[in-house]
Design brief:
By secondary structure, this protein is an alpha/beta fold. It contains 10 helices and 9 strands. α3 packs across α6 and α4 runs antiparallel to α7. The structure holds S-adenosylmethionine.
């Protein structure tokens, strides 16, 4: 599968894991896809369900996709905008980036959001305690070359076509207002912030949030997949032992890349938690994983490892 990359990027983007998640997602034919933590939307966008509710607490993400859906942002308009702003950035350099950042924080334009997301350091979204975008400049004044703009315009085109072809809703809501709407036959894909990582205005995630999410998912009639982390070299995710052990857990090794050198590759065991049996045969390596937890716990149904090596920017 060639993964289609969406026009907006965010921390924890699941581009490298989208195929794995897709392989295990069990959406019924007439069911609705619920994605309460859409972020970039890369998972659902690659599944292309005919009905979907994409939601996020971050209004800038939702405004951006609703603008595409309404036709306020088209591939042509985005191209024109990025050509104009890209030329200004090239001429004026860093100060122009900060001018746009200020403009975005005053007025919240979705096109400015796109510009910042692609010109900022590491291509992420981060907001300070006042909800203002605060990522510094990525130091590439020539960022918006023709080929790069074409790539972004095509990413917008992909979403534009899908929103005209399918029934996709984009809603700015807390997950507690989204998950209860899912019915039997629907499917819920959850990718909440990981506790302690990427904390910012829209990514604060507490023990209470984690617990409430598991409670809602446990009560859901729909099937679900929850993405989380399982363990790294130093520790394992306490939520697996506390809440997820009752479900099916699949894991996969994933390499986060910090800097260029080999030593900076940090292996992380990513997990998906499912409330049904895996759809595909999986390679089992139970012993190694169970060693992390209580081997005598009879309630652990599966802990399965399917290792792959991939790279992703941190
Ligand atoms: C890890 S990111 C999702 C990444 C996404 N799966 C992707 O591949 O791009 C988590 C998202 O959850 C959103 N979020 C954080 N707290 C939330 C809440 N209480 N309700 C809904 N969304 C929330 C954040 O704004 C962020 O976009």
């Amino acid at each position: 599968m060639t993964v289609k990359v969406p026009p907006l990027k965010c921390q924890g983007i699941k581009t490298k894991l989208a195929e794995w998640i897709k392989d295990h997602a069990a959406l019924e034919r007439d069911g609705t896809w619920f994605e309460p933590f859409m972020g970039s939307g890369v998972v659902g966008f690659n599944i292309r369900p005919s009905r979907a509710v994409f939601a996020d607490i971050n209004p800038h993400i939702i405004n951006f996709y609703n603008a595409i859906k309404r036709g306020d942002i088209t591939p042509g308009l985005a191209r024109e905008f990025l050509e104009h702003e890209g030329a200004q950035l090239q001429a004026k350099g860093e100060s122009y980036y900060y001018e746009i950042r200020e403009r975005f924080n005053q007025a919240g334009s979705s096109l400015d959001m796109l510009f910042l997301n692609r010109a900022c350091f590491n291509g992420v979204m981060r907001f300070n305690r006042k909800g203002q975008f605060n990522v510094p400049f990525g130091h590439k004044p020539q960022r918006f070359a023709k080929a790069y703009i074409t790539k972004i315009a095509n990413q917008i085109k992909y979403v534009q076509q899908a929103t005209s072809q399918y029934d996709w809703q984009f809603a700015c809501k807390d997950f507690r207002k989204v998950i209860p709407d899912a019915r039997q036959g629907d499917f819920i894909y959850c990718d909440p912030p990981y506790i302690g990582r990427h904390v910012d205005y829209f990514n604060a995630w507490s023990e209470k949030d984690e617990q409430e999410l598991y409670e809602l998912l446990s009560a859901a009639q729909a099937k679900f997949i929850l993405s989380t982390w399982h363990s790294n070299r130093f520790r394992s995710n306490p939520a697996i032992e506390k809440y997820a052990y009752r479900f099916t857990i699949l894991t996969r090794e994933h390499f986060y890349h910090v800097g260029a050198s080999e030593e900076n590759r940090n292996p992380m065991l990513e997990a998906i938690v499912l409330n049904y049996n895996p759809l595909l045969p999986v390679e089992m390596e139970v012993e190694k994983q169970l060693a992390l937890f209580d081997k005598n716990n009879p309630e652990i149904r599966y802990v399965i490892q399917t290792p792959i090596k991939s790279q992703e920017a941190p």
